Amino acid sequence: MFKSLDSKQMKKSLLAIGLGAALAFTGSIAQAGKYGIGDTATKDQIAGWDIDIRPDGKGLPAGEGTVEAGESLYEERCATCHGLFGEGEGRWPVLAGGEGTLTEERPTKTVGSYWPYASTLYDYIRRAMPFTAPRSLSDQQVYDITAYVLYLNEIIEEDFVLTKDSLASIEMPNQDNFFVDPRPDVKNVRCMKNCADPKKLKIAGTLRGITPVGHFVEGADAPAASHDAQMEQEQHKEKARKATLKGETLTSHGSAGAASLSEMALAGKATYEGACKVCHGSGLTGSPKVGDIDAWAGRIKQGMPILLDHAIKGFSGDTGVMPPKGGRVDLSDKQVEQAVSYMVESSQ
Amino acid sequence: MSKIIKGPSTRELMEQMARESEHLSINDRRDFLRKGVVAAAGMAATTVAGSAVAAQVNPANLPPNEPTWGKQLGHGVVEYPYGSPSQFEKHVVRRTVPWLTADSIASISMTPLQDLKGIITPNGLVFERYHGGVPQVNPDEHRLIIHGLVERPIIFTMEDLMRFPSVSEIKFIECPANGGMEWKGAQMEALQFTHGMLSCCEWTGVPLKTLLEEAGVKPEGKWILAEGADGAHMSRSIPLEKALEDTLVVYAQNGEMLRPEQGYPLRLLNPGWEGNTSIKWLRRLEVGDKPWYHREETSKYTDLMPDGRARKFTFVQETNSVITSPCPENPMVKPGFVEIEGIAWSGRGKIKQVDISFDGGVSWVPAKLKGLVLDKALTRFSLVTKWDGQPWLLQSRSVDETGYVQPTLRQLREVRGGNSIYHKNSIHTWKVAPTGEVTNVQIT
């Protein structure tokens, strides 16, 4: 797995000379490494990975973000999961609202109601968002989206210009309400006898039917044990319910088995699993779910060239947004074609 | 956006009923919820089968007959170059509760504690927690950079890191949300889901202190930002004191290289601290003078108190324990001899004592600690007794070497309310019915 590199050791001794000079120059008291293992990291190497931002603004790049520019970006890249107004779709995080709910039975923790620092928003969007295509936004786009999410939370005005300095100066509503862990905060004693009044014990049972226990409880009507199966189960129940309302019997739609798939589609299965399934496996963000014949019928009718064009170049439809190549610009057009074939053939 | 219109899920129904029953006493509330569930979801009563996977027994393989496998040959060496558990152990797997999260890529699964022996979790069963799925990292292309307030920023290859003198230590790792679904009430019907965000392995790697000394931390350096190479680029701020005390930079678990699920080829391990600080696919350590307050230490992994304020940097996993046999998955077989077994652990050190109660915490008897008793590791306890077929309210209570005694749920709720999500380490209760059925209950 690991090759020995003579040239690297040579480079190391050259670097050691440079290091000695640097230490002499700064007058540092730090000792040279005891083992002398590892190369000195260059500024360029560090710069490419050093993406973190701190509340005091340390780490923020140059740039100016505006609410206006952020709005369209947000709607294109974020709203499918987080909702047009930051209200959250399905179980995806709610970004806005929730002020004054932190003491309630069901608090809504959002950027505006809970987050102590605005810098966290820039940092997180830059390191991990959008969920299906992390590190795909430019620093500028991150500024714009950050501005828009702050605007959705009524933390900045519409004309606020977000910069390195202005971002660090924003005071978040909940900033002063965090304190360092005071635990241990409770003190139990090791009592051995008469530790409680048996007459006063209140016993509350488990809410049944919400944990997947089919593996050891016969006949348990619990949610299925995987996210896919859970989604499938919920969809099937919904279809059955609608069918009952109409007085119909539900015909089950089996998805195409591997035997009936074309060579092109079979070749696309791996790409689908690795890149497309995150949305198309569950119907996330309004995408047509693989195997959902109704959802695909209209799309398939348009013909493969149009479907493929939308998949490669991106498309905004009635139910959601398909980013170019689903955000995976590293995929070749051929791979996308194969994956689309797989999805189409599995959904008719 | 989605055109799919969902009927209320079971969870939504439960939540609705929970809200509607808030004014009722606990007993009335339970009845209401039980009846409500049956009415709303049209569910049939469930029956415990002992185990739905109970093996089918063919008498032809029992004495005095010679079983099939004694009359033929089995497979030879390296037919399976990397071995797997017996085909009869297929039920011993990680499981998840799908409604907990929006997607399996940013989600959690639980270790089947009910099926495990000793204190080591097999690598394939260590609980999973991903924020952006499992990356497939080529170790030859993986680098760890240490920079910031250091004399010499260093970039390490995996080969570099494996040249340092290594240490191997057995430590538990636990998600702070373990048990967190039960702050407001008992709702998980299985040990795997009440306590399974917990595993314990022998980890091999280099003390972070060694690497920091190699880089030379400047005097103003007080915090370290650890960051992963995965799509989530998971990041946490770690105080320098912890890094110098016992943090490890780990590349192996239980004798083999890390599993991809556990951060292959490199992860951080902060013994005794909440699992998310042990950054997986570790690529960067930056030394700074202040914490970074990133998403996973502000929006998440902070503990909301009843007054609306929140605790931050709640790192340590305080002592906790649970009985693993019996449990809902392992009901009582029949009256007579029984070994009550379980596990205890503490993020502050070794387990000193575990006590067991059969009557819901009125009286307690000491259990015996079995096998290795190690710092910040799972510790197994046992009590051999007899069951006469009467109902039990079975509890375990651990005490760690600092003298801290595992608290009751009431004690925790009095201070922290019900919105904390994390760090619920209270005494757990299994109700044993005369039928042998074991269910999860809460005593207040």
Put the structure in a nutshell.
The complex is a heterodimer of chains A (348) and B (444). Chain A is mainly alpha-helical.
Arithmetic mean of pLDDT of chain B? 90
Uncertain parts of chain A: 1-30, 250-258
CATH class of the domain at 65-177 in chain A: Mainly Alpha
Number of H/I helices of chain A: 12
Distance between the termini of chain B: 43 Å
State the CATH architecture of the largest domain in chain B.
Alpha-Beta Complex
Structural class of chain B: alpha+beta
Low-confidence stretches of chain B are 1-14, 24-53
Number of strands of chain A: 8
Strand order of the largest sheet of chain B: 5-4-13-8-9
What can be said about the biggest beta sheet of chain A? 2 strands, antiparallel
CATH architecture classification of the domain at 65-177 in chain A: Orthogonal Bundle
Rg of chain A from C-alpha positions? Answer: 28 Å
Tell me the span between the first and last alpha carbons of chain A.
45 Å
> Which percent range fits the helix content of chain B?
10-25%
The pair of chains with the biggest contact is: A-B, 124 and 147 residues
Anisotropy-based shape of chain A = globular
Largest sheet of chain B: 5 strands, mixed
